[in-house]
Amino acid sequence: QVQLVESGGGLVQGGGSLSLYCAxxxxxxxFSIDVMGWYRQAPGKQRELVAAITIxxxxxxxxxxxxxxxxxxxxxxxxxSLQMNSLQPEDTAVYYCNAVxxxxxxxxxxxxxxxxxxxxx
Length: 121
Fold this sequence. Notes:
Mean pLDDT: 96
Number of strands: 11
Radius of gyration: 14 Å
Distance between the termini: 40 Å
Shape: elongated
Low-confidence stretches: none
Order of helices and strands: EEEEEEEEEEE
Strand content: over 45%
């Protein structure tokens, strides 16, 4: 079993910055964390991809956060970070860490418990 533990988040004024951090732990020996990423879900809306990064550090971003958010990962610590700058009220949501873990043909997707990000206008 794999656990994802998130930290960061909180309340910030519009235009401000926040950083999120997520570390994976558990039965990871022999497994590869192919992709780590961040999703978010605002009230009344579907969960959406914010940013994801592969084990080879290829990053993808939602159009709405390009140029403002930066995702990075530390493979040695099985961790992923999200630096969020120029935050806007529409970025308010619960942010979830995600990891896709594989070992040969076996593949699993794991989620963190979520962390609230609130941006005031």
